[in-house]
Amino acid sequence: MNAVDRYLKHVGCWMLPNQRSRVLQRVREDVEEIIGDECEETEIEQRLRQFGPPPVVAARYANYPHVIPGMLAPAYFMVILITLAALFLVNLTLLIPRAIHGESWLSNLGLVLATSFSAAPWAFTVITIVFALLGYWAQRRAHHPRSQAVSP
Fold it and tell me: Between the CA atoms of 115, 116, 121 and 127, what dihedral angle is there, to the nearest 10 degrees?
């Protein structure tokens, strides 16, 4: 099995079974166009890496909408992680005034964790809605006739 076949197999793992063969044929055509007449395996693998990770390529070629499109997924996960860390740190700073007033650290830590976890679903919901709207806008813009460059 050559590098292209291995790559397509990994891409196919991320697709729905009923669409896999048809979509993989389109991916194969685009991959072969990008590779051209390259004979060296290392050059082919490098071009496949540039083409994209298998989950992103599968999402790019799929005919069903995603809440968070593949192009925004890395940023989405990073924002989620940063927000969860910020929620925890903000609630952690609330330990200081409580400790100054002589409250127990253990009960305060429980309060910090409970407050952080109770705010997490709200933060997740807001971030998901914002990224879903961004993804919807980006996908509509990519398929809109006026967004396509007009060649002279």
Answer: 130
